[in-house]
Amino acid sequence: PKITFKVFKIVAPFLWAPADERKKGMDSHSWDMVYNLFDAILEKRLQLFSNEFGERRLCHMLDESMYEYRPQHTKTGGLPNITHEPRKPKDLGTETKNGAECSTGVLLFSEVQEGKDEMPLKKYFGDVSAMPEHKTIGSSTAVVLRYADAVKAAPGSWIGGDSWFGSVMTSLELMLRKGVFSTFIIKTATTGFPKQELGKLIHHRHPKRKAGKHAVMTATVTGVCCRCVQLVF
Q1: Is 30 helix (H, G, I), strand (E, B) or coil?
Q2: Residues 6+ apart with CB under 8 A from 181
Q3: What are phi and psi of 196, to 5 degrees?
Q4: Phi/psi class of residue 27: alpha, beta or left (left: φ > 0; alpha: ψ in -120 to 50)?
Q5: pLDDT per residue over 161-210, tens digit each?
Q6: Residue 47 dihedral angles phi and psi, to the nearest 5°
Q7: Pick from 75, 58, 77: which is nearest to 67 by CA?
Q8: What is the DSSP letter of 228?
Q9: What is the pTM of this model?
């Protein structure tokens, strides 16, 4: 049985791969060989979800997953690319950006993070944003917008996520392009986020003990009302 299962794991990716992918050599495949499977599973879930909830405004949460895979004989072990994330419990393998509906926990979206040359070719990446500086849209904002497209997020829906997805740009684009509300943690993508000003405000209000204190600022950016909250742990 162990040998049979090992054979199945080797053969399985090719059961739904396009014919031209089967002819390629090791480490020469594209992610097209598994997208048929991903698309079929997610399409079925969305279909069932649409039948159940219709056009209801839903809440969605974004996160990432790592499918552990450690190549043994070649650099990528037959995969188009390998992702290395030292901060993850499983630091080597295939990374996906996922989205689930909050009330049911059903996974509605999963996108493989391809190589650095392939991801910039995807929809929304490099488009001009609504930010006052007219910066171009990067990877995180583009993934969130593609999620909204994939799940057909209705205006008035809500999307949340951690700091990888979070930025003022992401919230602006969701509201202006999709009419979708959002809440994100912002740590590194701080353009447009008054991090220093909020920190000074907390220090001014609570000079002796800042732990557990917070400050809020509200501003209208490109016609969108944004609320920024900073909490000191």
Answers
A1: coil
A2: 156, 157, 158, 159, 174, 175
A3: -65, -40
A4: left
A5: 999 999 999 999 999 999 999 999 999 999 999 999 999 999 999 999 99
A6: -65, -45
A7: 77
A8: E
A9: 0.83
